[in-house]
């Protein structure tokens, strides 16, 4: 049954400042309630909070030695974890393994053992879901913005276009013959022709072999433009 303190600062100019001293002071105050022995301290100085605890030099050492009934003390959640979802997953894992977690900004009681845990995990769960939704929204908006600018968002080029470039700089360039074929598809569809009939006619008129599925996709894309 060991007590460990974890502290972190994100920039080297904070190393000799008050940040580490303040974190250590608060953590040691809480540590006295759990052990009369001097706690082992792990400090990641100049390490970004965007890096997972297990991927930080000292954080990795801490994670490797943790055993059931050990106690980890930190001054704030953001000193240990990179995000709410990271905090939620790691805290639940530690709780299942019998490892106590004390965050002094929430008091000197283990957040993994008492009623505070339910509140903490509930807040973290909601925040984690909010974070995930923000990420999904940013991805959707990014893809839509790139598509609006003619950028290629991945996969093979759709009928009517060719892919130019590679990676993030890739974009779609219209293919004149295929664009003319799409215009013919739209006209035939407006006249009530079936997808298979349109595909057959496109092959005759433009010497382009397309399936009825490709016709449907081209018409769907044309309607969205």
Briefly, what CATH class of the largest domain? Alpha Beta
How many strand segments? Answer: 6
Radius of gyration: 29 Å
Name of the CATH superfamily of the largest domain: Resolvase, N-terminal catalytic domain
Model regions low in confidence, pLDDT < 50 over at least 5 residues: none
How much helical structure, as a percent, in the residues? 40-55%
CATH topology of the largest domain: Rossmann fold
Distance between the termini: 65 Å
Mean pLDDT: 81
Structural category:
alpha/beta
Count the helices. How many? 8
Characterize the biggest β-sheet: 4 strands, parallel
Q: What number of domains?
A: 2
What sequence of helices (H) and strands (E) makes up the elements?
EHEHEHHEHEEHHH
CATH-scheme architecture of the largest domain: 3-Layer(aba) Sandwich
Strand order of the largest sheet: 2-1-3-4
| Bulk shape | elongated
Work out the strand percent: 5-15%
GO molecular function: DNA binding; DNA strand exchange activity
Protein name: Recombinase family protein
Keywords: DNA recombination, DNA-binding
Domain Resolvase/invertase-type recombinase catalytic: 2-150
Task: Based on the model shown, name its key terms.
DNA recombination, 225 residues, elongated, 13% strand, alpha/beta, DNA binding, Rossmann fold, two-stranded antiparallel ribbon, Resolv_N, single chain, Resolvase-like_N_sf, 8 helices, DNA strand exchange activity
């Amino acid at each position: 049954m060991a007590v460990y303190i974890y502290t972190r600062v994100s920039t080297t100019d904070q190393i000799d400042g008050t940040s580490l001293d303040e974190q250590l002071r608060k953590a040691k105050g809480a540590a006295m309630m759990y052990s009369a022995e001097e706690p082992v301290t792990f400090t990641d100085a100049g390490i970004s909070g965007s890096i997972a605890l297990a991927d930080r030099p000292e954080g990795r050492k801490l994670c490797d030695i943790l055993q059931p009934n050990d106690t980890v003390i930190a001054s704030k959640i953001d000193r240990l974890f990179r995000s709410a979802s990271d905090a939620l997953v790691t805290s639940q894992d530690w709780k299942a393994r019998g490892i106590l977690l004390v965050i002094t900004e929430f008091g000197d009681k283990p957040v993994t053992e008492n009623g505070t845990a339910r509140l903490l995990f509930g807040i973290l769960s909601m925040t984690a879901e909010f974070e995930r939704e923000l990420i999904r929204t940013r991805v959707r908006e990014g893809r839509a913005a790139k598509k609006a600018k003619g950028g290629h968002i991945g996969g093979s080029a759709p009928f009517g276009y060719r892919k130019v470039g590679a990676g993030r700089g890739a974009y779609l360039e219209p293919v004149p013959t295929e664009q003319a074929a799409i215009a013919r598809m739209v006209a035939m569809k407006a006249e009530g022709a079936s997808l298979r009939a349109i595909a057959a006619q496109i092959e005759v008129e433009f010497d382009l072999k397309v399936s009825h599925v490709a016709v449907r996709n081209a018409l769907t894309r044309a309607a969205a433009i």
